[in-house]
Design a protein that fits this description.
heterodimer; A: mainly alpha; ABC transporter involved in vitamin B12 uptake, BtuC; 2 domains; two-stranded antiparallel sheet; 65% helix; B: alpha/beta; Rossmann fold; 7-stranded mixed β-sheet; 4-stranded antiparallel β-sheet; 23 strands; binds adenosine-5'-triphosphate; binds magnesium ion
Chain lengths: 377, 526
């Protein structure tokens, strides 16, 4: 392409610095929001005021901010559950199942401590919550480990296995919490029994303590890949499995390890949403919603290129837009599904803009003895 | 290529150009990469019907120049002329349109597809109405004309390296290439395959195709078949001459800038304890057939044990079993008196194995990793380089700097990605990384492939040095000169069996050559 005496050219990038990646992503977000304004304009709404509503509700409003933060924490766990296998070149799309398995683990602990019997059961927070966290992680780790084992031992496609496990776990959850199930709600609403208030997760400024676990994981995972032996082995396996095997890295242990870790982290997402978010405190029955939300973990992981620190702002944005989008949909009485459409456009734009992670546009001043672009015949 | 049928019009740049006239000319080509000038004001020309060799040390810029001629890279400066007209390639598609074809240093075929599918894939008429039988006839005609033999219905993964090379060439010819660029076409080929290929190359050049084969280290081949030679050194053209005016010595001199000694002094080292004992080893290949049967030998401290053979005779399976990457069907592997037949490969590394694999791209290195991280491949498990599960990348960076300078790996920094290294420089990095561990047992599978004469000499001396340091060396090579000049024991291998084990000083070249072709075996069997 030519503009004046300049030529526009696409060129392959050598390396991409973190700052370059960040600025490309920010450009993509601005582009996506601009693109989505068409929807508002078509509905006769000023897009700028719509966005003001969305962002101020999601990030400032006292009713909007807490759900944003809770979804952000949830998404961050799901993102890390995706990222760890992803760095080993493997795809975990079973976060939904794993987080429900984690939730079952956490509620099994409550069940064992007699939490089902009565809401006024006086359980010791210091004892029960650590057990619930461990059980949630273990619960998520089990389906993860199954996928990892099958991949490592028999090279069975991990995408298929994690997806199929999602279905199995759905039915298992359903069995446990529906009428007659061991975890059923005495009221019989197709939900699990409720958490006794004595073991509600501690809140700091209305934010569940799980945020510290999530942010702590960011640092830990960053450190894991940047410095440790295990992190090196995972990355080597992810880049070139044959070379990794040559170097003595076990093609069995790595898939098993990454899926077990990923599943465990997804399990914590289950604990977070069903046992730590104020107002929930039970295994909810709207599976679909959590499935969709967990799915954005994949998108956040891909956009942040597997970098756990970069995943933080991305997850925050997605969490906020899902809350703010739903809000303006109601407030401006727009049609149903606005929030999903907004997230979808954002997701597609971010993925398309990843093209610029690999290519850059350069301007070349065309010299006097100009050479035509293309092939001269 | 000439029209397969009478009456068909020849298209492309060679139309009307007669033998001896310039087809392609590159003027003032400059290409810079971060930290290196890979091509520096290069002038290069090819004439119709000539075989033009491009020579140069590892990293001299040969592949870069060819990639520019093929449109893979855009030059920073300079111009390309075809048939006297200036052209600019935005991508290889433009180059292919102009009749330029390239066979890369590394194969790029789809293993699960058949030969014919690979050949027609990406052809302009593929996707439109495509008559596979007619395509087959046309390809067979090409084969006949140039003396290629390959089963069009075979799957690519079943082919030998030489056959794959033929498929790559057929693919470019079928697309109408009239200038054929071959980047190190013989480096992965057996001697017999090489000979066949060279005959075909000569047949093609008689058809007025211009050919640039590109043989860095095999100077005798250059002298035997090329018409002209262009020599590059550090990105610049240092010589352009008619092959008849050149000798092996003069070419080496132009390439390296100093005289190269082609001989290695043979040293005897006092033989020590046995390091590696292999007893009655049998193993299956990936295809599930017996590829190695009843192999026994032993290597002691201070010995180089050379396995001479054409690749595909069980060398790969033997090496992988010893390295712990393949389970044997039968037999034992003993390292330093410990049975390691079923130990993990990690344990073998820790016990002092040092393995130089023959596949440097897919097995020996990780392209997206930096050189430091590539060095880490053989050090992450070493307690001197990691502590409490944390890798000491600082120390590894220093180590990488040291081995890079010792082995002369041309690179701007140890933090560059391995995939930007030239083929030979990557090979040097792998050798350096493994040998720097001072292994007890060195397994060297085609250690000098793709290395220039200077680097080959250097690496062979390094193997001798390892032997002097009381290591045992298992050397796998197709190059008889390499085997004969280095080995204390020579074992010709044929169809998975060792034909004999002959002491180095008693070896006769002809006998080993015959055994590699399986001749001795026939008399013995039945
Ligand atoms: N994509 C790239 N990015 C950065 N540097 C590169 C790239 N490709 C090549 N180089 C550098 O350019 C120089 C020339 O490389 P090139 O591959 O052309 O060498 P070569 O002559 O083909 O060597 P060999 O005989 O080892 O294959 C080397 O120093 C190499 O590291
Ligand atoms: Mg090269």
């Amino acid at each position: 392409m030519r503009i004046g005496s300049y030529e526009l050219k696409l060129e392959k990038r050598g390396t991409l610095s973190n700052w370059q990646a960040a600025s490309i992503s920010i450009l993509a977000i601005i582009f996506a929001l601009a693109l989505f304004s068409i929807i508002f304009i078509l509905a006769g709404i000023n897009p700028l005021s719509a966005y003001r509503e969305i962002f101020s509700f999601a990030f400032i409003n006292p009713y909007g901010l807490p759900p944003t933060i809770n979804r952000f924490i949830f998404l961050l766990f799901c993102t890390y559950a995706f990222i760890i296998p992803f760095r080993a070149g493997l795809w975990n799309i079973g976060m939904t199942g794993q987080l429900y398995a984690g939730a079952l683990g956490a509620f099994a602990v409550l069940f064992a401590f007699g939490g089902k019997a009565s809401l006024s059961a006086d359980l010791s927070l210091e004892i029960v919550i650590p057990f619930m966290l461990i059980a949630a992680a273990l619960g998520g780790a089990v389906p993860g480990a199954i996928a990892g084992f099958l991949k490592g031992k028999y090279n069975i496609n991990e995408i298929v296995v994690t997806m199929l496990l999602n279905f199995i776990i759905f039915w298992l959850v359903s069995f446990m919490i529906k009428e007659g199930g061991p975890f059923m709600n005495p009221g019989g609403r197709g939900e699990s029994f409720e958490l006794p208030p004595s073991v509600y997760a501690p809140l700091i400024n209305n934010v569940p303590f799980t945020i510290f676990i999530a942010l702590g994981l960011a640092v830990l995972i960053y450190f894991l890949f940047a410095k440790t032996k295990i992190g090196y082995q995972i990355r080597a396996y992810g880049q070139n499995p044959a070379a990794a095997e040559y170097a003595g890295i076990s093609p069995f242990k790595i898939p098993l390890l990454v899926f077990t870790l990923g599943g465990a982290i997804a399990g914590l997402a289950g604990y977070h949403y069903f046992a730590a978010v104020p107002g929930v405190y039970k295994i909810a029955r709207n599976y679909g919603f959590f499935g969709d939300l967990a799915f954005y973990g994949i998108i956040c992981g891909l956009i942040s290129l597997g970098n756990p620190i970069a995943a933080i702002p991305v997850a925050l944005l997605f969490g906020g837009l899902s809350v703010g989008g739903r809000y303006v949909q109601g407030k401006l009485s727009m049609s149903f599904g606005l929030d999903y459409a907004l997230l979808g456009v954002l997701m597609i734009t971010l993925v398309v803009f990843q093209f610029f992670y690999r290519y850059k546009i350069v301007f070349i001043k065309i010299g006097k003895e100009r050479t035509d672009v293309g092939v001269l015949r | 290529m000439k029209p397969p049928e009478e009456g068909q019009v020849q298209k492309g740049p060679l139309k009307g150009i007669k033998r001896g006239e310039t087809v392609l000319e590159a003027r003032g080509i400059t290409k810079r990469f971060p930290g290196v000038v890979a091509n520096d004001q290069i002038y290069f020309e090819i004439k119709a019907g000539e075989i033009h060799a491009v020579l140069g040390e590892n990293g001299a810029g040969k592949t870069t120049l060819m990639n520019i001629l093929f449109g893979l890279y855009q030059p920073d400066e300079g111009e390309i002329f075809i048939g006297g007209k200036s052209v600019k390639f935005r991508s290889p598609l433009d180059a292919i349109d102009m009749g330029i074809g390239m066979v890369h240093q590394h194969r790029k075929l789809i293993p699960a597809h058949t030969v014919i599918e690979n050949i027609i894939l990406g052809h302009p008429s593929a996707g439109k109405i495509l008559n596979i039988n007619r395509a087959g006839d046309e390809i067979n005609e090409l084969c006949e004309r140039y003396g290629f033999h390959v089963d069009l219905k075979a799957k690519v993964w079943q082919l030998s390296e030489g056959e794959k090379q033929v498929v790559e060439i057929l693919k470019t010819l079928y697309r109408g290439a009239e200038v054929l660029i071959l980047d190190e076409p013989t480096s992965a080929l057996t001697p017999i395959e090489t000979e066949k290929l060279l005959t075909s190359i000569e047949a093609m050049s008689k058809d007025e195709l211009a050919i640039v084969p590109f043989i860095t280290h095999k100077l005798p081949i250059v002298l035997a078949i090329s018409d002209r030679v262009t020599v590059l050194r550090r990105g610049k053209v240092t010589a352009r001459l008619d092959t008849k005016d050149a000798t092996e010595k003069s070419l080496a001199m132009e390439m390296v800038g100093r005289e190269v000694i082609f001989r290695i002094e043979r040293t005897r080292v006092e033989r020590g304890k046995p390091i590696l004992q292999v007893e009655n080893l049998s193993a299956l290949s990936d295809k599930g057939v017996l590829a190695l049967s009843g192999v026994s030998f032993s290597i002691s401290e201070g010995e180089i044990f050379g396995i001479a053979g054409i690749s595909g005779n069980g060398q790969r399976e033997l090496v992988e079993v010893i390295a712990g990457l393949r389970n044997p069907e039968e037999g034992k592997v003993i390292l330093d008196e410990i049975d390691i037949t079923f130990s993990s490969s990690l344990e073998r590394w820790q016990r002092g194995m040092g393995y130089i694999p023959c596949d440097r791209i897919d097995v020996g290195s990780i392209g997206d990793f930096s050189l430091v991280e590539n060095t880490t491949m053989n050090y992450y498990f070493d307690d001197n380089y990691s502590r409490y599960g944390i890798v000491d990348y600082k120390k590894l960076r220093k180590l990488t700097e040291e081995i890079v300078s010792e082995y002369g790996v041309a690179t701007p920094s140890p933090d560059t990605q391995a995939k930007t290294l030239s083929g030979g420089n990557l090979q040097k990095l792998i050798l350096a990384r493994v040998l720097s561990r001072k292994p007890r047992l060195v397994i060297a599978d085609l250690p000098t492939q793709g290395l220039d004469v200077g680097a080959t000499e250097f690496v062979r001396n390094k193997l001798v040095e390892a032997k002097k340091g009381k290591a045992g060396v298992l050397l796998i090579s197709e190059d008889l000169d390499e085997i004969l000049s280095l080995s204390d024991w020579v074992a010709p291998v044929y169809e998975g069996k060792l034909m004999d084990i002959i002491p180095g000083e008693k070896v006769k070249r002809e006998i080993v050559g015959a055994m590699m072709a399986g001749l001795h075996l026939e008399g013995e069997e039945t």
